[in-house]
Amino acid sequence: MKEIEQRLTENGVRPTAMRILIYKYMAESEVAIALTDIENAFAKADRTTLFRTLKTFEQKGVVHQIDDGTGVQKYALCETGCNCELEQDLHLHFHCNNCNETVCLTEHKIPNINLPEGYVAEDANLVLKGICEKCST
Amino acid sequence: MKEIEQRLTENGVRPTAMRILIYKYMAESEVAIALTDIENAFAKADRTTLFRTLKTFEQKGVVHQIDDGTGVQKYALCETGCNCELEQDLHLHFHCNNCNETVCLTEHKIPNINLPEGYVAEDANLVLKGICEKCST
DNA sequence: AATTGTAGTGCAACGGAAGTGCATTTATTA
DNA sequence: TAATAAATGCACTTCCGTTGCACTACAATT
Ligand SMILES: [Mn+2]
Ligand SMILES: [Mn+2]
Ligand SMILES: [Zn+2]
Ligand SMILES: [Zn+2]
Q1: Furthest-apart CA atoms within chain B: distance in Å
Q2: What's the predicted TM-score (pTM) here?
Q3: In sequence order, which residues have a C-beta less than 8 Å from that of residue B58 and are 6 or more positions away?
Q4: For residue B76, what pLDDT is reported?
Q5: Nucleotides, chain D, CB distance < 7 Å
Q6: Which ligand is closest to the CA of B101, given by its number?
C-alpha cells in the first residue's frame, strides 16, 4: 500500500484514495484494463474521474495505453524503470480471440524494421491475435 | 472501368454503380481510406450504403481493414492475388503523425515472432508511426 | 412482358466509448 | 484560518460504428 503511494509520488501523481485503489486494481490484474472495467469495479465513482485518472497515469508514465484492435482503449501498468513518457517501451501485446483479453508480453520486444527511404519511425505497435495460453489448454 | 467490374465479379461482389465508384475512388488513393472519407467524396449516397459496401468488400477480400491506432477504421484495396479472406496478408502499415495519413507498406511483411508456450497466433497487426516520406522532405 | 424473388439502397434510430465545461468538494500552503 | 490549487462529480456532446425496417432496382422464371 505504501509502495503504491510511493510509486505514484515518484511519478508526480498525487496519491489520492481513488488513485491508489485504481492502481491496486490494475496491479492485481493479469490483463490489460479498459475504462469500462474500472467503471464496473468501482461503481460508486464517477466515470470522468476514472477516465481522468487513467489519462493522468498515462501522461505521467504510470501506465501505458494499448490499442489491441478491439476499438476500446486499454491500459496496463508500466514496469518499474520503463520510460514510456519519452520513448515507447516497445513490447508486443497479445489479444485472445477467445476470451477477449489482452496481455502485455513485456519480454517480447518489437523487432527493428527498416523502412523505405524518407520514412522516420517514432513509435510502433505490434499486436498478435489468436488463442492465449489460458484458452489453449 | 471494365477491369473494375471484372475484379468485383471475380470476388463475388455484384458490380453496382456505387460499388464501382467506390472501388475507383479507393484505387486512385495512395492512402488508406476511412468511411468518412468516402462519405465526403460521395455526399449524395447514404452512409449506410457506403458502410455496407466496405463491409462487403472486406468480407469478399476486395479490401482489407487497417487499424492504425487513430480509433478510426480504415481500408485499402487488396493486391491482386492476396488472400486476406483466409490468412492475413501480413504487411505492415505506416501512420504519419504529421499528415495523419496511413499507407500500406505491402513490401514489408511482419516478421515472425515466437511466442511463449501456449500462445497460438492467428493474425498480427504492426503499425509504425512517425513521419512519412511526403512530410519528411 | 408480367411476376416473383433476391440483393442493394436509404432513412432513422441506437449504443458504446471518448471527451469537455463548469460547479463543487477536498487537499495544500501561506 | 484564509487563500489557492487540485481532484472529483454531473451533465452534456461528439464521433463512429452498427442495426431494423421499408423501399427500390435488378435478375431470373414463367
Ligand atoms: Mn503492455
Ligand atoms: Mn494494407
Ligand atoms: Zn484467451
Ligand atoms: Zn505525412
Answers
A1: 53
A2: 0.92
A3: B64, B65, B75
A4: 97
A5: 6-11, 15-20, 26
A6: 4
